[in-house]
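Inputs:
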Amino acid sequence: NAGVTQTPKFQVLKTGQSMTLQCAQDMNHEYMSWYRQDPGMGLRLIHYSVGAGITDQGEVPNGYNVSRSTTEDFPLRLLSAAPSQTSVYFCASSSPGGSSTDTQYFGPGTRLTVL
Amino acid sequence: GEDVEQSLFLSVREGDSSVINCTYTDSSSTYLYWYKQEPGAGLQLLTYIFSNMDMKQDQRLTVLLNKKDKHLSLRIADTQTGDSAIYFCAEKPSYGKLTFGQGTILTVHP
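Outputs:
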């Protein structure tokens, strides 16, 4: 198993550009989520999905869109990048609530800089 | 809403014990986790504890849970330089979302 994979590892954008951060998992997990990590603020939930075709907003959804057309993939789109979106982005997946550990598995992260 | 608090920094000498503390507010928390993040990497699950447990030991790691005070701690025995990392506490109700603390930067000096 590759686990949770994210591409790209690094990205630099200009203000106003759009891009998609890719996330894929091969563990057949139903629950997937996107977090952003900023210094001194821990991880904040952007969007999450409890299964294919179902998405919902997290704590900081503004400026981001997601879709979940398959169980494996959960891309995060920035429609018009802003400097405030400079951050490290993590994708995570887990099996649904009720499993013995219900732990989330994290990808390696995408470091995004918006100029 | 849910809130998880951690101190931001901890510095210890190699061979000493490290104790990282965490407080949370959600009394419906069912699962409490400790994650480790090494520089430039994602989060790695270290250990977890169910809310009906007081203590869990896993090799050099000991997790203590005081449910009355909503206080969680992670003790690392015989701390090594390889333990230098950011440690995140996280809590989760049974069918809710994971909430993370800000992370504690552990620095181990030789």
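Remarks. Chain B is about 0% helix and 60% strand. The two ends of chain B are 41 Å apart (CA to CA).
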